Amino acid sequence: MIENDGIEEAEQTTGPPDDDLGSSSRVTLRRIISHDQDEFLERVRASADLYQSRMPLPTTPEAFQTFLSRFDEGQSAEGLLVCLRDTGAIAGNVNINSIIRGRFQSGSLGYAAFVPHTGRGYMSEGLGLVLRHAFEELRLHRLEAQIRPDNHASIKLVQRHGFRYEGYSPDLLFIDGAWRGHERWAITNDMIGIVPSAPHPTLPSR
User: Fold this and answer.
1) Which tens digits make up the pLDDT trace of 102-138?
2) Cβ proximity of 69 and 18 under 8 Å
3) What predicted TM-score, i.e. pTM, was given to this entire model?
4) Of 137, 53, 46, 43, which Cα lies nearest the Cα of 81?
5) DSSP E strands, the chain
6) How far apart are CA 68 and CA 63, in angstroms?
7) Which of 61, 101, 132, 134 is the most exposed place for a label (fewest CB within 10 A)?
């Protein structure tokens, strides 16, 4: 466990109140915006030892703006924050990357919990909100998480939400200077009974 490293908790984060994509008893889900830059960078720096190069996240204002520019509200990628419901403080980050429509209707998950809010179940609550948002609002059919075999906490997280193990892919992602093998875990909307009222318009009729 990493110490707070001098980060002081604000009484209330002044983010836009109308961007709530879902709430649980303790956390809310919203899109990441430019306003989040300073707090996000503080969280990433404080949490660096947790992820090392496993989950590359921006550490400078310039890198943050480049990171932010990837997201287009679910057209090809969605950048989301898990925030504490009582203060608005950022507890974690979830990205839905590589969204492909048509017959696939799928996205790839990346996520990170931030110090000092790790180990309290906030990301588990947040991931539940992400699944509902992805399947109801974005109308995706499938989400996949690629996880290093030694990342036991991440594997337990997706197992808790009903993801199924689909296999091991050697040399799947380039991380820390080498191609690394990953386990593939996936979930579909019908596996957890979250089916949109209408399919996405890009889904073929047959």
Assistant:
1) 999 999 999 999 999 999 999 999 999 999 999 999 9
2) no
3) 0.88
4) 43
5) 20-23, 27-31, 78-84, 90-100, 106-113, 142-147, 164-175, 178-188
6) 9
7) 61
